[in-house]
Automatic annotation (TrEMBL):
InterPro entries named among the record's database cross-references: At2g35280_TPR_dom, At5g50450/At1g67340-like, F-box-like_dom_sf, F-box_dom, TPR-like_helical_dom_sf, Znf_MYND
Protein name, per record: MYND-type domain-containing protein
Domain spans labelled MYND-type: 283-325
Top-level taxonomy: Eukaryota, Viridiplantae, Streptophyta, Embryophyta, Tracheophyta
Domain of life from the UniProt record: Eukaryota
Keywords on record: Metal-binding, Zinc, Zinc-finger
GO molecular-function term, one example from the UniProt record: zinc ion binding
C-alpha cells in the first residue's frame, strides 16, 4: 500500500474539485487492478482529452492543470494538447509574477495559440505592459477582444484613451468609448464605470450627466453583488477573477522589478533610462504603467497622482486619495508662501 499514500498527497495539491475527482478516479482504477495495470491506459485518447479539457475549463489555478499533467507521462502529453489548452479557464492561466519563467511564458503562448481567449488576454497584458512588446501584446488583446473577452475589450479601451504604445496624437476617446460600451454590455464592471465617467464628462461621447450617473450606480450595484457572491464562495476563486489576475500580476511585477532595481542601485547609476520616469497608475490594484512620459492623467488638485483612466481616478479618490490629496495640499500650503 505504498502507492495510495503517495497518490493521495498528490490529490491534495489540486485545489479544483474536478481535478481531485479525476485523480481519485484514476487512483481507484489503479488500485482496483491488483496487478498494478493502470485501467486509464485502456481509455481512448479522445476520452482522456475530453476529461482533461474539463479539468482545464474548471481549473481554480495553474496548479490544477499541472497536477493533472503530473499524474503520468500520457497525461502530461495529452494535457499539452491544443484541445485541452484551448479550454483553459481564466484561473488556469492566472500566473503570479514571482513564478514567471520561460516555461510559464511558453505555457501561456501555447494556450493562446490553441485559442484560449483568457490566455490571449493575460499574455497580451503581460507582453504589452511588463515586457514592453507593445505590438504583440496589443495583437493578443485584439484577438481576445474580437472573441468577445470583456476584459480585453476594456483593456483596448484604456489603450485608446491614452494612446498607449504611441504618442499623444494617438489618443482616440471615441474608439475608447465604443470599446467600453461593448465590454460594459458584456457585463464588465470597470468598463461600465469608465463609460459612466465618460458620459458625465463628455469625453469621447456627447455629455449626458444623468445617463452617466445611472451607469455609475449600475456599476456600484454590480460590484456589490460580485463582492457578496465572492464572499459566499469561501476559498474558491471565481473564473471572472482572472480579469483581476492580470492586474495582480502587473502589481507584483513592478514591485519585484523595483526591488531588483534598488538592489542594483548600489552599483553604477544605470544611465538615467526613462523607464524610471514612467509612472504607475496611482489606483494601486490597477497595475498599469505609462508607456511614455506624462501619458496618464494627473490629479488636477495635487498633480502628484496619475491615473490610467477616469474610473481609476474616481475609485482611488474614494478609497484613498481624498485624504492624501488634502494632506498634500495642506503640506504644500504650509511649506511655502506659495508665490
Ligand atoms: Zn491629488
Ligand atoms: Zn488604472
Amino acid at each position: 500500500m505504498r502507492k495510495p499514500t503517495r497518490r493521495s498527497s498528490l490529490v491534495k495539491k489540486g485545489s479544483g474539485g474536478r481535478t481531485t475527482a479525476v485523480l481519485l478516479a484514476k487512483q481507484e482504477l489503479v488500485l482496483g487492478h491488483g496487478g498494478g495495470v493502470d485501467a486509464f491506459d485502456r481509455l481512448p485518447d479522445d476520452l482522456v482529452l475530453a476529461v482533461l479539457a474539463g479539468v482545464a475549463a474548471c481549473a481554480a489555478g495553474p496548479a490544477d492543470l499541472a497536477a493533472a499533467a503530473l499524474t503520468c507521462r500520457r497525461f502530461r502529453e495529452l494535457a499539452a494538447h491544443p484541445a485541452v489548452l484551448s479550454r483553459a479557464s481564466a484561473a488556469a492561466v492566472s500566473l503570479r509574477a514571482g513564478r514567471w519563467s520561460e516555461a510559464a511564458h511558453q505555457f501561456l503562448r501555447r494556450c493562446a495559440a490553441a485559442g484560449s481567449l483568457h490566455a490571449c488576454y493575460f499574455l497580451g497584458m503581460v507582453r504589452f505592459y511588463c515586457l514592453g512588446s507593445r505590438a504583440t501584446g496589443a495583437a493578443l488583446l485584439a484577438r481576445a477582444a474580437s472573441g468577445g473577452h470583456a476584459a480585453a475589450l476594456y483593456a483596448l479601451a484604456v489603450l485608446q484613451f491614452n494612446g498607449s504604445g504611441g504618442g499623444k496624437a494617438d489618443k482616440d476617446p471615441r474608439a475608447g468609448v465604443a470599446l467600453c460600451a461593448r465590454a460594459a454590455w458584456l457585463g464588465h464592471v470597470p468598463a461600465l464605470r469608465e463609460l459612466g465617467h465618460c458620459l458625465q464628462d463628455g469625453y469621447g461621447a456627447r455629455r449626458d450627466a444623468a445617463a452617466g450617473r445611472h451607469l455609475l450606480l449600475h456599476a456600484a450595484a454590480r460590484e456589490l453583488v460580485a463582492i457578496s457572491s465572492a464572499r459566499c464562495r469561501r476559498g474558491g476563486r471565481r473564473a471572472e477573477d482572472g480579469d483581476d489576475a492580470a492586474s495582480r500580476f502587473m502589481v507584483e511585477w513592478w514591485a519585484l522589478s523595483a526591488a531588483k532595481k534598488s538592489a542594483a542601485a548600489t552599483g553604477e547609476g544605470d544611465g538615467g533610462n526613462d523607464a524610471a520616469e514612467l509612472r504607475l497608475c496611482s489606483q494601486a490594484p490597477c497595475g498599469r504603467r505609462e508607456t511614455r512620459r506624462h501619458e496618464f492623467r494627473r490629479c488636477s488638485a495635487c498633480g502628484s497622482a496619475s491615473y490610467c483612466s477616469r474610473a481609476c481616478q474616481a475609485l482611488d479618490w474614494k478609497r484613498a486619495h481624498r485624504g492624501q490629496c488634502g494632506a498634500a495640499a495642506a503640506r504644500w500650503l504650509a511649506a511655502g508662501d506659495a508665490y
